[in-house]
Amino acid sequence: MTYRRQSPIVVHRSGRALEKAMGGDELSLEEICSLLSVRDPVLLDELFQAARATRERNFGDSVFCYGFVYFSTHCRNDCSFCFYRRSNQKITRYRKTDEDIIDLSTSLEDSGVHLVDLTMGEDPMLHHGNDYQRLIDLVGRVDEAVKVPLMISPGVVPKDAFPGLKDAGADWFACYQETHNRGLFAQLRPHQDYEVRLSQKKWAMSSGMLAEEGIMIGVGESIADRARSVQIMGDLGVRQVRAMSFIPQCNTPMACRDHALFLEELVTIAVMRLLHPDRLIPASLDIEGIRGLRSRLDAGANVITSIIPPSMGLAGVAQHELDIEGGGRTVEQIESVLDETDVHLATPSEYASLISGWRRELMSSEAGP
Ligand code: SAM
Ligand code: MD0
Ligand code: SF4
Fold first, then answer.
1. Residues framing ligand 2 (Cβ under 6 A)
2. Helix H or strand E encompassing 242
3. Taking the model in full, what pTM does it have?
4. N or C: which end of the chain has fewer CB within 10 A?
């Protein structure tokens, strides 16, 4: 599917849903579907413009940027879409030392990121029985070394690990459901528990961490599945919501699937912005590299993620090499793209005050009336 003319009735229906969304009215599932189906060039322009105006009303002209440290590519899981799935024995994996992780995090901080995201596969060295002390210690050491907030993306951890991770200094917990269609989830994440994965976000928030939820685009989901996900992501109360196009990976069961059309991701980003106006929405460099940044910002995203220092032997997730060694995923490169837009990077204190306000909200809602 690409930019194409749509019938006048369909365009009219989507146009009405857009007006309603812009007015701040709640949309039915059917109306969200009709927004997610917009492909008519004129209406697409209006949709993206509305998303940018909504971002501006809520965040002014500031956007944020996150450094990404994928510190272990070992994994016990076998997700069908992922290059790092356990069954892919044709790849060289790495596990960075604590010292390396600290150096990488401080160098990202020095380069100007607003947050460092510590991400790993479900590495059996760190997912060891129910003992998460090693991960907790690592988070504590990085937190001591950097001033910027930390996000962790360790996969699924037990409920009782959350307070320790939070106390060690994790501000955010990211864990993406990929889809909220349970049948599709079982195909994408075989032998993984849908409820336990969904609970990660809830457990993180009850322990006082902010949470991020996300979906993949182009993994066999329908437009109605996407619409339902947009609703569920809102209901969960997470402060960051993402949509990332699926990129087929060699040596995986989904290697021969079609590449998702990036336009579908852009439309989903714009609809998420309209329905969840004050949430953070990533423009990930991990899908199209730096050349995909502008279109994602134009669709209403406001956090540039997957900034990776070059020449450090680090990988991306969906695009393990794209733009990394050449220094394409750096704050400097981002600045040069932003120079051509109406937005600019926020100051570190703007970001810090945004999230400390959210954490206060979380704490008061957890404390109850
Ligand atoms: N191992 C942890 C987990 O799976 O939650 C943390 C890694 S997390 C950053 C990996 C995320 O990258 C997945 O949840 C998925 O959304 C995304 N991803 C992985 N492979 C992808 C692919 N081939 N195309 C697009 N996104 C992908
Ligand atoms: C990104 N490659 O932001 C990273 C990753 C994990 N929290 C984030 C998917 O695109
Ligand atoms: Fe492991 Fe995460 Fe990849 Fe699944 S998505 S195989 S859990 S690294």
1. 68, 117, 119, 153, 174, 282, 284, 286, 305-306, 316-317
2. strand 240-245
3. 0.97
4. C
